[in-house]
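Teaching note: in complex prediction, the entire set of molecules is handled at once rather than each chain in isolation. The prompt given to students was simply: 'Predict the structure of this complex.' The entities are:
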Amino acid sequence: MKKLVLVVLIASLLTPISATAAETKFVGGPLTNLDSQGATINITLSNVPAKGGLYLQQCVEAAAGTRPAVCNKAVELWISTARGASFLPTDTIKFKPTGSFVSGTTTVDCTVSKCGIFMRFDHTVASDLSEDQFIPLSFKAASVGATTLPVDEITAKINGVVVTTRSPITLSYRQFATVSAVSKAGAGLTYTSLAPACSLNGTEITPLSGVGECAISVTSAGNSNASPITAILPIRLSLGVQTVGDFTIPKSIKAGSKIELPSLSNFGEKVTYKASGSCSVALARATVKKGKCTISATAPAKSNTYKGLNQKYSITGK
Amino acid sequence: MKKIVALILIITSLSISSASASTVKGSQGQVLSVSKTTFKDGATATVYGKYFDETVGIYLAFCVIPAKGKAPTPCGGGINKAGLGEASFWISSNPPPYAIGLTEEFLPGGRFSAKVKISKKIGRFDCTKVKCGITVRADHLRSNDRSSDLFIPITVK
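The expected output is the structure of the full assembly:
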């Protein structure tokens, strides 16, 4: 009896936990005897959790308990109500797998390897594996002479930091940021903001919120050497840093001098100044006397957008 | 003499209140202000906004004030999908591709300022007879979203 319990326990550990816990119901077809090129699987999803979007990928089945790592990036779909998604969760989804594909340096032949549709939560809940599901696919043998164009590879950076679907970057509200990307095949690239929380002007990103997430997509048009691909660059948003702009105060100044202080912060909040020691502040103007002085600048926070300002300046009147 | 002084004070205070600045606050904390609330036909009102949600584009316009829960319409200058006009403005930090360059961006902190033309007539409506005002609504990308609506009634002389 103990042996039986042990076998059941081991078997349950080997089975991917997520596959049994997934809420999303997948209905689609055809799933077998697919053409190597030009196949389309019509998919409808139901019970899609509201906490995040989904990715549908064509991957080689991974060992039990692990996520697939060899996937066909060219056919990946983003299922979400967010702007820029490939399909809404309520749409009839057209998924177009291929009988062979290139992943990194690996060429996959799905008539030999066990390929399938891997469904998972998107980058907004990247660490949540509860929607992981693998739906096996089978393909007809490819006709003789058919060639597979490798998928282009995009290396993208935001503010000089490499960003991928699985390694987001964090930007604060109104933080200056630029995106740059390189196509391995030398194909043309286009950039698009996928969410209203970030605006994109050329390659300049402006985060417009201090909470949540946004994403930038970079699409390679492909060329004679590589097929097209879209890379999604997730951005996590954090509260903005409120300052009095580029304003600086000298460490020492002639006694009796007056210093004009900025009346508004970089986010337009009214700045309140208080002086202690050998100085006084009136109408955003400091008058420094002989001795040490501290001027504190404060401004209110805005929820979900930026932090309050609380800055101190020390100055000596000589 | 005291009565005359009191009368002058009352008249002065009434005239100040009818023409003084007005501010309204929205459900999401956004604030809309106008420099004064009484204008002559053809004058311009200086309008300020702050704490607006920068992820949502808005129309700022001089319109007939609608019934509760309805979108403001008609508006001076009509629906302004072409960008900036004298009586209506499209303010968006994330406009659709076709509108890039046609909209005015929010300033940091969800701020904007604009000079809105006030007119006695909006189409067939006479603003000396019906209620007109400075209005804000979500842009046509969220045309059914009434959560951004704000109104400041304006008296047109």
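Point out the following to students. The first strand of chain B starts at residue 22 and ends at 25. Chain B has one domain: 22-156.
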